[in-house]
UniProtKB/TrEMBL annotation:
Organism: Populus alba x Populus x berolinensis
Name of this chain's protein: glutamine--tRNA ligase
Domain Glutaminyl-tRNA synthetase class Ib non-specific RNA-binding residues, every copy: 6-164, 167-240, 396-466
Domain (Glutamyl/glutaminyl-tRNA synthetase class Ib anti-codon binding) ranges: 805-909
Limits of the tRNA synthetases class I (E and Q) anti-codon binding domain: 919-996
The Glutamyl/glutaminyl-tRNA synthetase class Ib catalytic domain, residue ranges: 264-361, 362-394, 490-802
Length: 1021
């Protein structure tokens, strides 16, 4: 894909289009150009939510061409959510189309589009109830075959500006309330009765003497795939009493077929010998013989002779002769009756499976004589003989597909996309991290994407097995009703950290999603410790997590531990073995890996159930050494999903490492894959929300709940949150990023301000409000752009601290200035503002600063040589001391080396008539020959030089050696003496700072939280 196309794809994905729609759009130059222009006009090049994105896409494809002058105005209504539904947008198109390029009154436009009209959910529910009441008889008759679009249309006709999502939700709920769960019969597709109608006659023009001929070089057989492509699903069969069956060849079956046929095309022309051939058969011959000839293959002439009463030897002879006259030469002449023995044996097999019928006819057969008195039907014999003859292309199917789909497109010839290899995390564009990134409107609710608990009756996922039908996982009506009764239909979520370290900013997103959804829906969120690995877990981490969750502003409904359910998990594991869905295995980790790579079953997979039960009990009692046995789930070792390769359910920890919560009661521990989904179900979680790396685990998650007949939560995955120039994960291969940095003392503990741990951010002075604002700002989408620039986080920090941190003055690198025209004993108390917009009448908005003969300024605010673009102090130049007076440098005192500046002499302008351009901060001696308040200041920079150090082989070599600077001799104004640990300030012209926990009564220590503006420049480096 060209660079330009990649940029456009990224742009389209940012506005919420799914990847398929985005790629299809790029294939259409007109729509691509329109959509690109619309995105730029709307000012959302850095992204927007999916609802707005879909409306923008509609504008790009349907906006009236005669009213382009008004398009920017319409886009303004969309991005501010004044127009937020397709119905409003269609009304806008209609209004603007009639207005064209003329000006119009906004009031008339807004009335026509329903701007400002709010339809309450109660109004919608009342209207839905009325529509259902009026159509109740028809709905009860048709059940789930009722045309929901008609119901939707009735509601929309009465309430044109109602939110379509709410309308759809209420209609679905009402259907479920009226009809109950779907039955097998509801899933059947109704058989359409074709009306008898006259055969369509081609237009007279087509039959002219010289009809249009297709070019000779057009190949009519290009629509057909090659034999080796016959691995795709042929059709889906919907049953009334069992799951959907997807029919396709297994790799083994297809490989054997290709070997038998040498990958050649095999077709057949299969007329029934019950009369003379007509011109319709000429087309059939052309298709089957023609395809075989064009591909260098073979075509059978096969007599479909399964109806002896209608067949004659005369017709057989005629067919053979006429096929030759038509110019076709059969590869072989066969009869369906040639296969009567095979068909009979397969029929017996069908009977043994419970599926066959017998027809007692004794008419002598024109080919096989009176050997048989039972005859296979066309529907039975036709497909089997096709298979026995290794037919690659069955005309009936191919013609039907062509009739339905038309010719094969380029997209049809694409090979199925392979599973994506893990690749470096995508870093968001620098533009997104500008000082003022696009913020979602406050009234946008990020949780609208999640369904309500009563909607959890739909299929969660389909699991494709190599040896059994597709499994569609969903809750039955009975299971869902019991769950809803237990939970009173409330939302239940969980935040399930593993207590193996301190939480980082990625966990802040997880908290926002789970706690935030529960809070928004009036539900409950568990804080659940996923404590299934005692060797890595500590009481310290458990205590920290509980404390930091509270600091982040979240209140758990209940605090639980996976270990609280160890007994239930054990009992369900026993049940799993009893059902034949688990077994005790003795393979080593290396052997398990090797067998998985080869898709081979464990030698112990089919051991007797009783034997596995006995061994599992011995595992529980500590009678088997660690590493000598595991309990594995019996899933599908030939699956295309590696997370179905007989995952481990239990392993032995024979060292009896004391568990930080459950003690030494257990020596076997459940795996995450086994315990996570079961505890979700036991806690009646309605929404199980996790990051995208768990998406492939959906199959194992729902498989386990299905085989145990447990309630199935709704699962949704979102992108991980990483921040540039730092590491988040507590583990990577043999190195645990954060653990390694902490244990090797490369940083100053889990709360080092350079880390993206929440404790580190807090110590750095970041507020929980700023973190939650940052998380809300980036959204909870599934976008793969999950590495966010540090500058974007800093923007939210500045926004928060600008409102909440009072101003004060500190000089980091003091340079002494002696004001020679000020009496040495005089100290003036001046007013300095804590807040820039403070009212002079509000005394609490000011603090006192002493102004005396000796003041200190930053060394960087003085130069020996002045320049036009320099606003600091220089010999003979004036600057304004903030909140005080202008001063002018009159002399510079140098050390013996004639270079080092010892002090500066200056004069101040008490009248303030001098108006210098430069304004600088300062700190003065509080009284004669008494130094100002001395403090320690720590300045922090990016911990790593690279944006994405986690992707580097030698990530430790990327640590920034200048990421921390300690300044011991900084001077501060006297009012800071009373600052307490955790107090935040803006040091004027320097940045935002917080009082560090290392502070003592004798000496204050400050950490810089963030500079006043992006300190890394426009490049982001």
């Amino acid at each position: 894909m060209a660079v330009k196309e990649e940029e456009r794809l990224e742009l389209f994905l940012k506005i919420g289009l799914d990847e398929r729609t985005a790629r299809n759009t790029i294939a259409n130059n007109k729509v691509t150009n329109n959509l690109t222009a619309v995105i730029h006009e709307a000012g959302v090049t850095e992204g927007c939510n999916r609802t707005i994105g879909n409306l923008l896409y509609t504008v790009a494809t349907k906006y009236p061409a005669n009213a382009l002058i008004h398009r920017p105005a319409l886009l303004g209504y969309i991005v501010t959510t004044k127009i937020k539904t397709p119905a409003q947008l269609e009304a806008a198109f209609s209004f603007l189309s009639s207005t064209a390029s003329e000006s119009f009154e906004l009031k008339g436009f807004e009335e026509a589009c329903g701007v400002g009209v709010e339809v309450s959910e109660e109004d919608i529910e009342r209207t839905v109830n009325e529509v259902f009441e009026q159509n109740k008889g028809l709905i009860l008759e048709l059940r789930y075959r009722t045309n929901v679009g008609d119901l939707f249309g009735h509601v929309r006709k009465r309430l044109p500006w109602a939110d379509p999502k709410i309308v759809k939700k209420l209609i679905d709920e009402k259907l479920y309330e009226l009809l109950g769960g779907r039955t097998a019969a509801d899933n059947e597709k109704p058989s359409k009765q074709k009306k008898e109608r006259p055969a369509k006659v081609e237009d007279k023009k087509v039959a002219d003497d010289k009809p249009v001929q297709p070019p000779e070089d057009l190949n009519p057989f290009l629509i057909f795939p090659n034999p080796e492509e016959n691995f795709k699903v042929h059709t889906e069969i919907f049953f009334s009493d069992r799951p959907v069956l997807q029919c396709c060849n297994t790799k083994e079956v297809l490989d054997k077929h290709l070997k038998r046929t040498s990958r050649k095309v095999y077709t057949r022309f299969p007329p029934e010998p019950n009369g003379y051939l007509h011109i319709g058969h000429a087309k059939a011959m052309f298709v089957s013989f023609g395809l075989a000839k064009e591909r260098g293959g073979c075509c059978y002439l096969r007599y479909d002779d399964t109806n002896p009463e209608a067949e004659k030897k005369e017709y057989i002879d005629h067919i053979e002769e006429i096929v030759e006259w038509m110019g076709w030469k059969p590869f072989k002449i066969t009869y369906t009756s040639d296969y009567f023995q095979e068909l009979y044996e397969l029929a017996v097999e069908l009977i043994q499976r419970g599926d066959a019928y017998v027809d007692h006819q004794f008419t002598p057969h024109p080919h096989s004589g009176d050997k048989w008195c039972i005859y296979p039907s066309y529907d039975y014999a036709h497909c089997i003989v096709d298979s026995l003859e290794d037919i690659t292309h069955s005309k009936l199917i191919d013609e039907k597909l062509y009739e339905l789909l038309g010719g094969r497109t380029a997209a049809d010839n694409e090979k199925p996309s392979k599973q994506k290899k893990e690749r470096p995390a995508k870093v968001e564009d620098k533009k997104v991290a500008d000082d003022k990134p696009v913020q979602p409107p406050e009234d946008l609710n990020p949780f609208l994407i999640f369904p309500n608990p009563e909607e959890n009756f739909k299929v969660h996922t389909e699991i494709f097995f190599s040896d059994r039908p597709v499994l569609q996982c969903c809750n039955t009506k009975e299971v869902l009703d019991k769950h809803l009764k237990r939970t009173s239909r409330k939302v239940y979520t969980r935040f399930p950290p593993e207590p193996n370290g301190y939480l980082h900013i990625g966990h802040a997103k997880a908290m926002f999603v789970s706690f935030g959804l529960a809070k928004e829906r009036g539900g409950c969120c568990y804080l659940r410790y996923d404590d299934t690995n005692p060797e890595a877990e500590k009481k310290e981490y458990i205590d920290h997590i509980e404390e930091i969750v509270e600091w982040m502003g979240w209140k758990p409904f209940k605090i639980t531990y996976t270990s609280d359910y160890f007994q239930e998990l054990y009992e369900l594991a026993v049940e799993l073995i009893q059902r034949g869905d688990a077994y005790v295995d003795h393979q080593t980790p290396e052997e398990i890996k090797e067998y998985r790579e080869k898709k081979m079953n464990s030698p112990w997979r089919d051991r007797p159930i009783a034997e596995s039960l006995k061994l599992f009990e011995e595992m529980r009692q500590g009678m088997i050494e660690e590493g000598k046995a595991t309990l594995r789930m019996k899933q599908d070792m030939q699956s295309d999903n590696g997370n179905m390769y007989d995952l481990i359910a239990y392993r032995i920890k024979a060292s009896f490492t004391p568990h930080p919560h459950s003690g030494d009661k257990w020596c076997i521990y459940p795996s995450y894959d086994y315990a996570h989904c079961i505890v979700d179900s036991l806690e009646d979680i309605t929404h199980s929300l996790c990051t995208l790396e768990f998406e492939t685990r959906r199959a194992s998650y729902y498989w386990l709940l299905h085989v145990l007949d447990l309630y199935q939560p709704y699962v949704w995955e979102y992108s991980r949150l990483n921040v540039t120039n730092n590491v988040m994960s507590k583990r990577k291969a043999s190195n645990h990023f954060l653990n390694f940095l902490v244990t090797k003392k490369l940083v100053d503990g889990w709360d080092d301000p350079r880390l993206m741990t929440l404790a580190g951010l807090r110590r750095r002075g970041v507020t929980s409000t700023a973190i939650n604002s940052f998380v809300r700002g980036i959204g909870i989408t599934r976008s793969d752009c999950c590495t966010i620039r540090l500058e974007r986080l800093e923007y939210h920090i500045r926004e928060e601290l600008n409102r909440t941190a009072p101003r004060t003055m500190v000089v980091l690198q003091p340079l002494k200035v002696v004001i020679t025209n000020l009496d040495s004993g005089l100290v003036m108390d001046l007013d300095a503002k804590k807040w820039p917009d403070a009212s002079t009448e509000d005394s609490s908005a000011f603090y006192k600063v002493p102004f005396s003969r000796v003041v200190y300024i930053e060394q960087s605010d003085f130069r020996m040589k002045d320049s036009k673009d320099y606003y600091g102090l220089a010999p003979g130049k004036s600057v304004l001391l903030r909140y005080a007076f202008p001063i002018k440098c009159t002399e510079v005192v140098l050390a013996d080396d004639n270079e080092t500046i010892v002090e500066i002499w200056a004069e101040y302008d008490h009248s303030k008539k001098t108006k210098p351009k430069g304004v600088i901060h300062w700190v003065a001696e509080p009284s004669r020959e008494v130094d100002p308040l001395s403090i320690e200041v720590k300045l922090f920079d990016k911990l790593f030089n690279s944006e994405n150090p986690a992707e580097l082989e030698d990530w430790l070599a990327d640590v920034n050696p200048k990421s921390k600077m300690v300044i011991s001799g900084a001077y501060a104004v006297p009012s800071l003496r009373d600052a307490a640990i955790g107090d935040r300030f803006q040091f004027e012209r320097l940045g935002y700072f917080v009082v560090d926990k290392d502070s003592t009564s004798e000496r204050l220590v400050f950490n810089r939280t963030v500079t006043l503006r992006d300190s890394y420049g426009k490049s982001g480096k």
